[in-house]
Design a protein that fits this description.
Length: 631
């Protein structure tokens, strides 16, 4: 059962499994390893192999004879007829015994094959564990190797941004795995400890959204202005369900629709949460105070603190996805969503601007800054998981003209057929600044044996000199920290968390709610009588299936969802006829930009020409997607 395996990750390493232990060996060179493997395999061939099915084949030379039995019976005076009966009985018993031996032989061969397979899998698992353990031990200098990697700036980045000379694009992705170890410095306990140290230090580095903070770069004598927003009471829980939910497995739905046209299959609302993709866009702005803070740091001419807060804002949008197992509703063509949040100083608006491909555009105005984006998801189904690659650029522009642009990282949803559903975000995020600094963040992909998932590491680079001026560490579902200075200049064995300053921390004060929605997410679909009078008929809050799901009226929600999806399948025809979005236009770069006019129309309650896309066909608005079903 011995086997020899060449390592795929190291061209000098080989592994020998003897049947009782595993030997991990490293040769001088690749050629030396090849010579050793050839010699070991040759030596193995000199010895008998394990038993195979050929070893159990019965010999053709074996002949069963009854001559001795016949001779003995004749001596006793037994008649010929009785002797023949005895021979027949004996041959029959021998044949039965031979069949039993063959069955045992087949069972033995099957057990041997199973043993070989288990040995192979065990060897693979042992090798993986050993490789990861050695990597952790070799990088136990707590980021010392991270610094060495960061100092090896390379222009061989595999991404399309390779040709750009922006500061954040100089780093190569080849060694990303090196500085993404899973040491305890980024464990939850370490992060909480660092957060506690920041609060207890009294140095003005406490970045609490309800507190005042000092300029930790330029000294405590400079403070950024805190913007005071009015208090607005919002709901903090969903209505109690009116019906008992009937859990349905995705596998049972797939099984029931084998051979059918899947384009006509309507998934029940049990797989949805009571939010639309348009509302999810606004959910990314939950921690918008980070952008307010970035604005104020810029006014203090502290561009470094500005981009650090922008980077924290870019990461914070992923925090609410932890524990969320249901998908948002896909908006209808022309569906919109508004969010007027004076308690955050925000006015947000989004619209579904294209059906094929499905593109959602949004625009948000804060105090002294604007944010806009359009997004399209390219999905890949891998059997047990779905990979979602976002396509689109997010833009943040401050009133002084400085602009930051970035794209989202890949999201994968696992165990969609069996097991507990969970999502992970991974990839490289480059935040390109038009001013002095840019940033590169790496979201680490979670592995099977990872004790410390959801890690985010990165650095800020000076666009003028190419030097790394700050390091960012944290987790996208917990907190983000920064350490000033070039990390490559730190001594070996340096622990970054001893100097880490808290930039952002996820709000964990809320209790667990239905669908695992945060208090901010719960407020997104709230519909008050005063708001109802102001909304256009295309707003997501008015979508009936989504509203019924929120109220726990599952049968009505399923019925409405089926009706709306049947109408929505006709949206491609509407788009082919030249349909254009009402509030967004494509610019010269192919991106959708808000053209204005929505809030003015809302103020006047003037929604002329806006179709009732959620209602029945009125026969008067032939540009409405709901009217296409009868055409």
């Amino acid at each position: 059962v011995s086997s020899i395996r060449a390592s795929k990750s190291d061209d000098k390493r080989l592994t020998i499994f003897t049947g009782t232990k595993t030997l991990h060996l490293r040769c001088v060179s690749r050629e030396d390893r090849t010579a050793w493997i050839e010699a070991l395999l040759a030596a193995k061939d000199l010895f008998p192999r394990v038993l195979s099915s050929n070893d159990f084949q019965p010999s053709e030379d074996v002949v069963i004879s009854t001559d001795k039995l016949r001779s003995r019976l004749l001596q006793e005076g037994i008649g010929e007829a009785v002797i023949k009966d005895c021979e027949s009985i004996m041959l029959l018993e021998l044949s039965e015994m031979q069949n039993q031996l063959k069955a045992l032989q087949r069972k033995h061969i099957k057990l041997l094959d199973t043993l070989r397979q288990l040995e192979t899998e065990k060897l693979e698992l042992e090798t993986t564990v050993v490789d990861e353990t050695k990597e952790r031990k070799s990088y136990c200098g707590r980021f010392s190797d991270f610094y060495s990697v960061m100092s090896e700036g390379s222009a061989t980045d595999s991404d399309a941004d390779n040709e750009s000379q922006d500061g954040a694009d100089v780093e190569t992705d080849e060694d990303d795995g090196i500085y993404f170890d899973t040491n305890d410095f980024l464990s939850s306990e370490a992060l909480r400890s660092a957060s506690y140290r920041c609060r207890e230090s009294g140095s003005g580095c406490v970045f609490d959204k309800d507190a005042s903070f000092s300029d930790c770069v330029w000294g405590p004598e400079k403070e950024i202005r805190i913007i005071q927003y009015p208090y607005v009471k919002r709901r903090d829980n969903l209505p109690e369900p009116k019906e008992k939910e009937k859990p349905v497995g995705l596998w049972s739905i797939i099984k029931d629709n084998i051979g059918k046209d899947l384009s006509g299959v309507c998934l029940p609302v049990y797989f949805n949460e009571p939010l639309s993709s348009l509302q999810k866009c606004f959910e990314d702005l939950e921690y918008s105070y980070l952008v307010d803070r970035a604005l104020e740091w810029g006014k203090q001419e502290n561009d470094l603190m500005r981009i650090l807060n922008v980077a924290a804002f870019a990461v914070s949008g992923y925090a609410s996805t932890e524990g969320r197992q249901c998908k948002p509703f896909n908006p209808l063509l022309g569906e919109t969503y508004e969010a007027d949040y004076p308690d955050k100083g925000l006015r947000f608006f989004s619209e579904k601007v294209s059906h094929h491909p499905m593109i959602v555009a949004c625009h948000c105005e804060g105090r002294g800054w604007k944010f806009w984006a359009d997004s399209n998801l390219k999905g890949k189904f891998w059997g047990r998981s779905i990979q979602l690659d976002p396509v689109g650029i997010l833009t943040l522009q401050f009133e002084d003209g400085e602009t930051f642009q970035w794209s989202k990282v890949t999201t994968s949803i696992y165990n969609i057929i069996l097991g507990k559903i969970y999502c992970d975000h991974y990839g490289t995020m480059r935040i390109k600044g038009s001013g002095n600094y840019s940033c590169k963040l790496k979201f680490k992909e979670q592995s099977i044996i990872d004790r410390n998932p959801h890690q985010v590491h990165g650095f800020v680079q000076d666009n003028r000199t190419g030097e790394k001026v700050a390091m960012l560490v944290g987790k996208w579902d917990e907190a983000m920290y920064y350490v000033l200075g070039d990390p490559t200049m730190k001594p070996k064995g340096y622990d970054p968390m001893t100097e880490a300053v808290l930039l952002w921390e996820r709000d964990k004060s809320a209790t667990k709610t239905r669908y695992n929605l945060t208090p901010f997410a719960i407020s997104l679909n709230e519909l008050t009588p005063d708001l109802l009078e102001k909304l256009p008929p295309t707003d997501s809050r008015l979508r009936p299936d989504q509203r019924h799901l929120e109220n726990g009226e599952y049968e009505m929600a399923n019925s409405e969802k089926l009706r709306l999806e049947q109408l929505q399948r006709q949206a491609r025809k509407l788009q082919e006829r030249g349909w254009q979005p009402r509030w967004f236009n494509k610019d010269e770069d192919g991106c959708y930009r808000y053209i204005g006019g929505y809030w003015e129309a809302r103020e006047k309650r003037k929604w002329d020409g806006i179709p009732d896309i959620f209602g029945q066909c009125s026969g008067s608005s032939h540009n409405s997607p709901s009217c296409l079903i009868e055409e």
